[in-house]
């Protein structure tokens, strides 16, 4: 079995993307990487989706990365492509970029529900999300160098921006796993919960975000991400652009009006 990717709707405005290959610790086959890229593209294009939750099936693993028997041999040239998914992965560079949330803006706030082991490509995908809720038994790591490989799906660029440099270098160069408690201490995840509460909490947060003004949420997210690492004057310019966009929207008029009229707001996303 090569596994599958499920795209589901929870309520009107929350999408759930689930990696489903628990018998292989949710390792990603070429077919799954293609399906994951398609799911991310579908969510980005869907105007009704205002928040996304990404998780894996079961409680053993969120995602253990690319399949070492299928995906990595294909990418090193150790095996020839056998089907349309293999060929797409090799020929269409954007498929790997999108499936790992690398150099691809999904636009919608994305919450990672780390329900178990989060390694290699799974870890790299997590780094591309905005909020991370983890099971307290989860383990994290980038073991690629132990197999003479490298984490090429965003970690070399993103990890040193998300944790102190020495921490990033230890994780990248040793390949050793670390605990959920350590991930929380380093700020890689925002909450630790028992395994049976992780997905529910992620969906709860997604629902809260989806209930906010979508123009404002996306503008705030964009300004925060694009402004990270910029000199202050550049980051302030992004804030100014976000302000012009949001304050001229219909939703910005609706929010205060609904508050004054003591009713729930009706945000239209424009």
H/E element order: EEHEEHHHEEHEEHHEHEHHHH
How many strand units?
10
Mean pLDDT: 95
Order of strands in the sheet with most strands: 1-2-3-5-7-10
Instruction: Choose one word for the global shape.
Output: globular
Count of individual helical segments:
12
Report the biggest beta sheet as strand number plus sense, adding barrel if it closes: 6 strands, mixed
Residues in helix, % = 40-55%
What is the straight-line distance between the termini? Answer: 44 Å
Class of secondary structure makeup: alpha/beta
Sheet-strand content, in percent, reads 15-25%
Low-confidence stretches: none
Q: Taking Cα atoms only, what radius of gyration do you get, to the nearest Å?
A: 19 Å
Secondary structure elements and their pairing?
Blueprint: E1 4-10, E2 14-20, H1 30-45, E3 51-56, E4 61-63, H2 71-76, H3 84-91, H4 93-99, E5 110-114, E6 117-119, H5 120-127, E7 131-135, E8 139-141, H6 155-162, H7 165-174, E9 178-179, H8 180-186, E10 191-193, H9 198-210, H10 214-227, H11 232-247, H12 250-260
Parallel strand pairs: 2-3, 3-5, 4-6, 5-7, 6-8, 7-10
Antiparallel strand pairs: 1-2, 8-9
Helix pairs in contact: 1-3, 1-4, 6-7, 10-11
